[in-house]
Amino acid sequence: MQPNYVTKTIKGSNTIQFSYKPGENPEQMQIDLQSPMQIDSVFFQKRKISFSKRGMNSWLLSLTKNNSRVRISKGLLLTDSVLIYYSGNPRIAKNAPWDGGWIFATDKMGRPWMTVACQGLGASVWYPCKDHQSDEPDKGATIRMIVPDSLVAIANGRLQSITKRKNNESVYEWKVINPINNYNIVPYIGKYVNWKDNYSSITGNNLELSYWVLDYNLEKATPQFNRDTPRMLAAFEYWFGPYPFQEDGYKLVESPHLGMEHQSAIAYGNGFANGYRGRDLSGTGWGKDWDYIIIHESGHEWFANNITTKDIADMWVHEGFTMYSEVLFIEYHYGREGADAYCRGVRTRIRNDRPIIGQYGVNDEGSGDMYNKGAGFLHHLRETINNDSLFRGILKGLNKDFYHQTIDSKDVEAYFIQKTGLPLQPLFDQYLRTNKIPILEYAQTNNKLKLRLTNCNEQLSMPIRIDGKQTQNITITTAWQEFNISEGISIKNISDNFYFTKKEASSSL
Ligand SMILES: [Zn+2]
């Protein structure tokens, strides 16, 4: 592909490989490309084929039959490809990365700086593809960019070649070999410089770390990236298992917007400062000693890129677990006290406006609470399981058993239920599929404690732990129960890591 900085246009081609079963010769293929971008021509088996536009954003290609196809034995898949030429003025992002589109920016020295952010909106905003999270290019992608030779072009995976052309142009070719979400495939074009480092992964591999920043930011970026990238990898490989794209390496690439989880080429725009643009999102002080964007966006390599949800209704699996990765980063490097405090801090930002799982099949994300409530809920879930080595085993197991797969929230929930043997489904339904936060009602007299849950579904029951001189494990339900509690135990000793509201019952009890 070739972007034109002056006219704000892109032209290029995309070869899409696909496979199908013998006998089901495909005659049509739907491809997404959003207006005002357009398909110019399509080739199938080296012949030009016809195509038509359906609505604003999708196209139908007519794949003509070709009797010369090689017959192969039953049960194997046939593979073929289409070559699509496209061009146009892509939608330009007004407020990246929150809205989507191309970014034709200028760096501080007035030079072109171009990239894309298109999560949610979809990659078809700039190139033709099958634009659905459930349909990843499962053999990776090759990205070829033609740019003025004064600039450098970076994309996912590893650099294959740089070829000089006439007219002072260079062709950069990058290749990612692992499955990748369409929205993660992204060019970065600007006056970049590079340095490299190595990290000894828990797999025993030597993982290549490669950093790309604008030339004038090299001095500021070097200590920041060199400090927090190895810290991130140490924490996340401990909690989640090996970095999931070892073959493609790990890269941080400076971007004109705040950041995005582009697989193996994380977009970074946090100004080489700690916190989230210098702020601690939790308001507790625990979020100010590390670079939020390096930690958060890299956390997505496990939850979003390794494990991808099929439908964006389940995006809490991406954002909730990744926000929780911040908690686990703090715990790994600063201890549990900081992790608890940070998690309670971000919980104050929850709005509970609507459920964090959206509507399926209609491109609906669910509440923005998927970040803070997702993290708060996972901390609650961890307290419920009350076995940290099992909890860590589940986080690692998810990344191993769903390695490079697309899944549903239900798959994650079933995995927790299976591995813990606990009846957790009502808990998932309560916190993910409603916006009601349970209330723990209590009445305390001498050595008796009466407890029940309200503001929740009837089936909800919660194992909780009360810490006193001794620890007592009890299970509370929506019916009043009276507990004989041992000395020193009171309602105050129920951990604040559980995400519910405590309320004294009215005196009529
Ligand atoms: Zn995120």
Can you tell me about this structure?
With 509 residues, this protein is an alpha+beta fold. The protein folds into 3 domains: 2-193, Sandwich (Immunoglobulin-like), CATH 2.60.40.1730; 194-435, Neutral Protease Domain 2 (Neutral Protease, domain 2, Orthogonal Bundle), CATH 1.10.390; 439-504, Immunoglobulin-like, CATH 2.60.40. Helices cover 22% and strands 31% of the residues. The strands form 8 sheets. Strands 1-2-8-4-5 form a 5-stranded antiparallel β-sheet, with no helix packed on it. Strand 19 and strand 20 form a beta hairpin. The radius of gyration is 26 Å and the shape is globular. Residues 67-73 have low confidence and may be disordered. Bound molecules: zinc ion. Zinc ion binds next to helix 3. The site of zinc ion has 4 residues, from helix 3.
Bound molecules: zinc ion
CATH level 1 class label of the largest domain: Mainly Alpha
Number of H- or I-type helical stretches:
8
**Topology, number of strands:** 28
Through-space gap between termini: 72 Å
Low-confidence regions: 67-73
Could you say what the CATH architecture of the largest domain is?
Orthogonal Bundle
Largest sheet: 5 strands, antiparallel
Instruction: Briefly note the structural class of the backbone.
Output: alpha+beta
Indicate the mean pLDDT.
93
Number of domains: 3
CA gyration radius, whole angstroms? 26 Å
